[in-house]
Structure formats: C-alpha cells, structure tokens
Amino acid sequence: MSGTTRLRLAAVAAVLLLLLVLLRGVPPLGEIPRRIRSLAAFAPKELAVRRLGGSGTAFDRRYFSFLENARRRLPQGTSVVFLREVPPDETHLFLATYALAPRVVAMGGPEPPLPGSAVAVYGRQPSASERAYAVLPEGFLMLGVPR
Question: How far apart are CA 82 and CA 28, in angstroms?
Fold first, then answer.
C-alpha cells in the first residue's frame, strides 16, 4: 500500500471517527484535553499498563493488577480458572473473563482444584493450610494436580 493511499485511508478514518463522536454526543469541553493527555501518556506503554490506566478497569484497578499478575504466573495448559473471594458481580467476572482469555473463568470452584485448573484467590494471602502455587501482591494462585 502506498504512502498516499495510507494517508487517504487515515483521513477517511478520522472523519468517520469525528462523525461517530458527534452523533454520540459531544463530550464536555474540559474532558477532551484530559482524554488527549491520557491517550498521549499511555499510547507508548505496554498493553497491560494501558488497560490499567483505561476506563474499563477504573472500578477496581487493584483487581485488574491481580488478574494481570495471575495471568502471567499461570502455567501453560491451565484451562480453567476459578475465582474466589472476588465480588460476585458481572463487572468483576467480565473483566476476569477478558483478562484471562482464552481460559474458562468461573466463580467458586471445587476443593481441591480440578486437574488442569487453577484457583485465583483475591484480596488476601494464603493460610498455612492452603498450598499456594504463586503468592501475588493482591492474592494468590493454587493449582490442581497436573494431568
């Protein structure tokens, strides 16, 4: 694709985006500079950092940090993650499903964890009787017996 074609496509995309913003309703004038500053600050950052700074995690940024830490520590082949001690609402479940995809995410889970699964416990450290696979700043992970 030539440079001229890219510029034309970018211009068309910008116009379409402007039209969509105008049709949706103009945000308050004070909000536009804030959004531009936020976009400029987070654009060069790693994806997880951009998500942490975005509005989708604003309801509980510590929880998103927990999910991201858990995602990075889960062993390859983990197919199911059970969430424990997470607020039982759609917002927390949806964010976990998004952050931990393509794994299946569910609330609760069996004791002990099933083979090939993990339990992510949010908001506390493990007790002496809990066998933690990984201790995170915001919680811990337990694993089922390997297959």
Answer: 41
